[in-house]
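User: Study the chain.
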Amino acid sequence: MADQSMDDRVLVIVEREDLARYASLKRVFASESADVILDRRRGERRGRPSPPSVERRRGDRRVRSIAQELRTLGWALVRRELKATLDSTRWAAAAGMEPARVRSEVLLQLSGETDVVSARERGREVAAAAGLSPADAAVVATAVSELARNILAYASRGEVILRIIETARARGIEIVAVDEGPGIANVELALQDGYSTGRGLGVGLPGVRRLMDQFHITSTLTKGTTVTARKWRR
C-alpha cells in the first residue's frame, strides 16, 4: 500500500450478507488510500447468466471477474481513479438532520462485552480523526459505549456504524446504532431520565441525547431500534 500511486485508490467490495468480513476488511484496509464497501446489488450475482458474446467478453472481463470473486471469496479487490472516488459521494441522513457527505465509515459488530470496549475506543479514534477535540472525542466514546451496552442488554447483538461526515458548514462524526431486538414501546418515555422497565431500558439514551449535538431514534416493536447521533467539530 505504501508504494501505491496517489492517482488511484484501492476499492474492496464485500458481498452484502457478509458483515463480519466487511468489518474485518475495514480494519485491515484502514487507510486514506483504500475504501471498503458492501456490494449493494440485489440478486445480480446469484443467477447464472448466459455466456456473453465474443464482442462483449473483453469489455465485460473486469465486471465478471469481480462478480466471480464475490461468489467464491466473498470479496473482490479492484483499483479506481481518485477522481471517480471523489465524484462518487455517499450521503448520510436521518429524520430532522441535514444530509451529510460520508468521508469514511467503520462498521462494528456487537455480541459481547469486549465488543463494547472496542467500540468505545474506536469511537474515540474516529472522533479524533474527524478533528474533534480530546474532550469531545471522550464524549463520543461515552455515547458509543452507552449505545453499545443498550444493544447488548436488549437485543443481545447488533451493530454500531461510525462515520466521519461533512456538510457545507461543518465536519463531525455520526454514530448509528442498529439492532433487531424487541423495540421500544414508548420512545418518549424511554428518553426520560430515570425511566426503567426493570431491566434498565432507556437509562443510557437520555444521556446520549444530552452529550451529542443531534439525536434521533426510531423503534418498532418486535423489529428493533435505530439510534442516530452526531457530534460536530467546534
Remarks:
- The mean pLDDT is 78.
- Helices lie at 19-28, 54-72, 82-87, 113-129, 134-155, 187-190, 204-211.
